[in-house]
Write a structure and sequence with these properties.
single chain, alpha+beta, 3 helices, 6 strands, about 25% helix
């Protein structure tokens, strides 16, 4: 769907405002094993902080499936660190939708090596 393309385009462009715009006002965002971030303004702030911690990223989707009120996808994400090194890892995402807005977005990824020396 177009909104999925918008989410990944926003992330790969480092645009926290566009990313947060897909969420319901009280939507939840959970990245890896971090605590849930609740509410569109908090999501935007948290994601902006993450974007500042990396030089960039790009996603390659492998699969997408959807049912009533939810969808899931997987693929790989390549993170570009500020030191110029890249890290490519698999991810899986689950969206719970409320109409055309995200009520919950969970990213399952092991990005622990991203901040390793």
């Amino acid at each position: 769907p177009d909104w999925v393309r918008r989410v990944f385009a926003a992330v790969d462009a480092g645009d926290a405002r566009q990313f947060a715009a897909v969420f319901a006002e009280d939507g939840q965002f959970i990245f890896g094993n971090a605590p849930a971030v609740v509410g569109r303004p908090a999501v935007e702030q948290a994601v902006a902080g993450f974007f500042a911690s990396i030089r960039g990223c790009r996603h390659a989707l492998s699969r997408f499936c959807a049912g009533p009120g939810h969808c899931a996808m997987d693929g790989t994400v390549t993170y570009l660190r500020h030191d110029g090194r890249e890290l490519t890892v698999p991810f899986a995402n689950v969206f719970v939708m409320r109409g055309d807005q995200g009520a919950e977005y969970r990213i399952f990824v092991d990005a622990s090596a991203l901040y390793a020396p």
